[in-house]
Amino acid sequence: MNERPPRFSGLDHDDRRFFRRVLIVFGLFAMAYFFWLLAGTLLLVFAAILIAVILRAFSFALERHAHVPRSISFYVALFIVGVVLAGFVYFFGAQLQTQLTDLLSQLPEQIDGFAARLGIEDPLGEIESQLDDGFGASLFGQAAGFGYTVVGGFTNLLLLIVAAIYLAYDPKLYRKLFASLFPPDQRHGVENVMLATGAALKKWFVGQMVSMLFVGLLSGLGYWAVGLPTPAALGLIAGFTNFIPYIGPVLGAVPALVFGFNISLEMTLYALLVAFAVQQLEGNVLVPLIQKRAVAMPPAVALFAIIIFGVLFGFIGILLAVPLAVTVMVLVRKVWIEGVIEHPPRHD
């Protein structure tokens, strides 16, 4: 009786499942590495989407409240934004430029005075001595690199604006294009998730702009009332830095405190009182009103988002940390909680 050698039947079911899981893990790591390499580009894309959401929301508001025809509402929105920015520069640009110039020209003297009060002698002279010791060549190289960075930054800004305009002009086209990457039975759900994310980002941005305007105006008025120099510039800094929750208000108050410290201890206390009062009014009066209509984000989530995205992506990550966290929250709620936990997929 001739016995046939046993055939190689391949891997059994458990082995195949194990290797499939290994391939999935490797695929996830490869995808994560790919996204890490493209982190800067992806952040630029996200910023363009954020601006597009804002422009689209403005054009929709014109359609709904001002009864502007849909065919021209987007162009009207762009025109209004351009006119507002140009008008702001025309009416307030000269004054702000003067105050910012004065602030920058006084900054070395203020730093010297601040350091002297702390017992540090001639901090800027130490920098000059390093330049004399041959550090200048290195600094020149860094300055050249900074020049390239500035040029690249302006290029990225131009691309950002152009991309945002295209995205805002026809968002439905790009939603369907992205949804087409998924299986046909999932495309409708993908578009719904994108719409929910856009709505959340719009609400967050409106609330953030109101908060920044509130903080900037009150800070400028408060610094003017107590007699600090360049109050408009200090208020502008306070308003812009308020874009970053929790960390921004602290950074925005630093220039005012430095100026106040160099004038007198009493002026320092006045500057601190103004910054503290503005933040208390914002946190206890304005924020609760905003959260009724905007996205309510737990403070710990926003703080951890700033830390995580700041460590991963630097300053741009800090700027975009909260809108990125808003996006993640919507994705978790729509995809995981509603799509998996509350309505688990059926396996027939």
TrEMBL record:
<dbReference type="GO" id="GO:0055085">
    <property type="term" value="P:transmembrane transport"/>
</dbReference>
<comment type="similarity">
    <text>Belongs to the autoinducer-2 exporter (AI-2E) (TC 2.A.86) family.</text>
</comment>
<feature type="transmembrane region" description="Helical">
    <location>
        <begin position="146"/>
        <end position="169"/>
    </location>
</feature>
<dbReference type="GO" id="GO:0016020">
    <property type="term" value="C:membrane"/>
</dbReference>
<keyword id="KW-0472">Membrane</keyword>
<protein>
    <submittedName>
        <fullName>Predicted PurR-regulated permease PerM</fullName>
    </submittedName>
</protein>
<feature type="transmembrane region" description="Helical">
    <location>
        <begin position="42"/>
        <end position="62"/>
    </location>
</feature>
<dbReference type="Pfam" id="PF01594">
    <property type="entry name" value="AI-2E_transport"/>
</dbReference>
<feature type="transmembrane region" description="Helical">
    <location>
        <begin position="232"/>
        <end position="257"/>
    </location>
</feature>
<feature type="transmembrane region" description="Helical">
    <location>
        <begin position="302"/>
        <end position="332"/>
    </location>
</feature>
<keyword id="KW-1133">Transmembrane helix</keyword>
<dbReference type="InterPro" id="IPR002549">
    <property type="entry name" value="AI-2E-like"/>
</dbReference>
<feature type="transmembrane region" description="Helical">
    <location>
        <begin position="204"/>
        <end position="226"/>
    </location>
</feature>
<keyword id="KW-0812">Transmembrane</keyword>
<feature type="transmembrane region" description="Helical">
    <location>
        <begin position="74"/>
        <end position="93"/>
    </location>
</feature>
<feature type="transmembrane region" description="Helical">
    <location>
        <begin position="269"/>
        <end position="290"/>
    </location>
</feature>
<feature type="transmembrane region" description="Helical">
    <location>
        <begin position="18"/>
        <end position="36"/>
    </location>
</feature>
